[in-house]
Specification:
By secondary structure, the chain is of the alpha/beta class. The chain contains eleven helices and eleven strands. The N terminus is likely disordered.
Length: 330
Amino acid sequence: MKTIFKIATVALAATAAISSYADSTYPAAGKTITIIVPFTAGGPTDKVARDLAESMRKQLGNATIVIDNADGAGSTIGIGKAARARNDGYTLLLTHIAMSTIPTLYRKLPFNVLNDFEYAGIINDVPMTLIGRPTLPAKNFAEVKDWVGKNQGKVNLANAGIGSASHLCGLMFQAALQNDMTPVPYKGAAPAIADLMGNQVDLLCDQTTNTTSQIAAKKVQAYAVTTAKPLTTPALKDLPTLQSLGLKDFNVTIWHGLYAPKGTPAEVVQKINEAMKTSLKDPEFIKRQEALGAVIATDDRINPAGHKKFVEAEIAKWGKVIKAAGTYAD
C-alpha cells in the first residue's frame, strides 16, 4: 500500500509539474489560438471577435489568433463545437446573449452552457433600437403604442430568425405591451432591415450595429432605445428609453462573452481573462467598439465568476420571456 501511494504521489507530482509548465508557457510559440464564432463572417459578433483577437494577440506575445465561423442552428453548432474542443486553451468561444437563451429555446442540446464551459469574461454590451417602416403612421412611441393596440394581430414584427437578438427583443416588446403581433422571421438582420425600409414589414427591434446608419440616413423611423439610460451616439442621442416611456424594467442589451471548454487549466483561463481585460482598455479596441455603438464592459462581469453569475441570471430572465411566448426551436 505504501509503495502504491508513493508511485501515485510521484505520478501526480509529475502531472502537476507538466501542467504547471504548460500553463506558464501559454501560449506556446508557434501554437495558434482559434476563437469559434457561432455566426456568419461579417456580422456584429464576428466583428467583435476580430477586433478582440487583434488586441488580445498583442497581450499574448503576438500569438496567432484565427476566427472560425461555425454558424448555423441558432448558434448551437458553433457552441457545440467549442464544447467538444480540447481543453488546452487553444480553442475559445466568443458568442452573445444566445448563451443564455438557447437552454430554453431548444428542448434538447448536446451540451450544457453552465457546466461544459469555463467562463472568461463579458466583453461589451450592444444597445438596441425600436424602429419602424418609413410610412408607418406613428411618429413617436405613444403613437406606436396606440397604433399597435388598434391593429392587434395585424402588426408585422420582423426579426433576424429564431433566437436572434431582434427575435428576443421582439418577444419582450410584445410582452411589455401585452399585444399580439405577427412575427416575421428572416435569415439575418440585413434582409429584415431591407424589407422594413421597403415598407414590407412594420416594426423591428435590433442592435445599434445594424440600425444606426439607417436611422442617421432617415431610411427608417426611430422611436426608442432599449437601454436603461439614453445613448450618446449622435444619431441616437435624442431617442428616449423604453423605460422612460412606461415600459418598466425594459432593459435589453446584446452582450458578448468569452469562454473556454470545461477543464481548461485555471491558470490558462486566468491568462486569457487578463489578456481580455487589458484589451478592454486598448484605445484602438475601444474606438472600434464605439463605432459599432457598443459599450465596453467595466463591471464585475469582466471576471470569470461575475460572468457566470450574470449568465445564470440571464438564463432565468429570458427563460420566463420565451416560455410565456411559447416559442421553441426544435
